[in-house]
Each structure stands twice: as structure tokens, then as C-alpha cells.
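Take one protein record:
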Amino acid sequence: MSEHLRTALDLAAAQIPALPLRAGKVPFGNCRRCADNACGGRPNMKNPGRCTCPNPCHGWAAATADPGVINSPTWRRAWRDAAAVAYHPGGAGLTVVDLDNPAAIAWARASLPGTRTVPTTRGEHWLYQGAIQSANAVHPGVDVKSTMAYARWLGPGTGTITALPDAVRALVVKEPATVRPAAVAMPAWASGGQCPHRMPAYLDRGIAMAVQRITEAREAVHATVYRTFLAVLSTHGRCGCLTETHVARLFTAAQAKGESPRHCTDAWTNALTSLGL
């Protein structure tokens, strides 16, 4: 049994989802079956119940605490070729503050509560109990790795782990960007005239329900945003009653869930295209 496989099984026993990394600290590339997402995507919190590929070729989403999978023939071959072991912090209910240099470590010591630390090749990982959205470059030399991300396993670390503090949560919270009129693609013939439904309250209620649907999404946020945009446009996209103010409300709700302005614009454009608008 390889050292990496043994480490992964130890992690699985502690309910920490593990996955193999190739040289360069990158996941295994997709197999032919899964290339270009032809398989439909690995089952995970964003995309449950699709690809059943047994290969560890879906990045962080392949991480598992199932010893039967980790020790399967397919995965054993990957462990033989692996250069390191990684884990999915969010899947273990953890958040890693990745400090990439001495300046970042000094900043953390002055700004964050002490917790368990793990030395890395260039800095330290600070581990907190609790999972949040991952984010890169939250401060010079600082990344936050938790849900939908992986971190290299470098040992259990030292010190007592601390509950995830508000100071770390605040690092990944971004103010929703203001949606400028030029950033919102409206149907070319939308005139802003009276809604043919003859009830302005119908539109207002529909936008409020759409905002609520996005706000209440707990997983598959990308897909929820797109489906919600599609539903709004399928009902109101041809009557000219949608204004940039209405669309801005939808974009703001999506960005509050972690979507970027670009993701919002792409989802809106794709919905328009899907409906032939």
C-alpha cells in the first residue's frame, strides 16, 4: 500500500474527504469518458446525481471519505501515480486560510483569532471549524479554501482548532456590484410599455418570487440563477414590461449568493438566447 493511499484512508476514517493530486498540486485530468464534461458532471453539491465515473478525475468534487472508493482498483492506480494527497475542507466542515508568505502570516497574527496551524512550503494553513464559500486573493498572499475547493494535506497541524470567526467570514463577503444599465442586455424590442397582463402587481410579485427563489438556494446556485432568469424572461421577456431596475434586483440577489457580475450577465444572455430573444 502506497503512503498516499494510507494517508487517504486515515483521512477517510476521520470523515475528511480525500483525493489524489498529480505533480504540481493539481487534480487528475478528466478521463476520456468525462472530457469536456461529456459525462454530465461529477455528482457534488452543485450537480448531484449525474456522472458515475469511478475515476478520481473531477477535481475537488471527486474527494471522498468512502474507503471502498479510495481503495478501489481504479483509485489505487491513481494513488500509485499521485504526488500528494489533498482534501476537501468544506466537506469536512473546515475552512483553511492559506497564508502564502511571511507577510501574510504576520497579517493573520494581527487580524485573526489563533487556531490550529499547519506549516506549508512557503507559509501556513490556519484551520477553523466551520465551512464557508471559498475565495482567492482576499488579502495579499491570502486565499480561503472551504466549499468547492481542495487543499493539500500536510498533516494535522498544531494548536487547538477555533470556531470559524466573523473576521474570516467577512473576508469572503463581497458587496454586490452595482448593475449598470449598459451591463444589462434587454431584448432589442423591449419598450418598457404597459404589461399585457394588465396588472403591474403581477410583474412585481413575479420579480419578488424570483428574488426569493435565488436567495433561498442552498446548492446549485449557478443553475438556480439561470433557471430563474429563464422563468422571468419566458413570462415577461416579450411584453416589454421588464426594466433595468427589475433586472438589477435579480442580479443583486444572485451576487449576494456569490455569483459574479459576469456570471449574472452570462446567465441572462444565455436565457435570452435560449428563448430566441
Notes: The first strand starts at residue 18 and ends at 22. The chain has nine helices and ten strands.
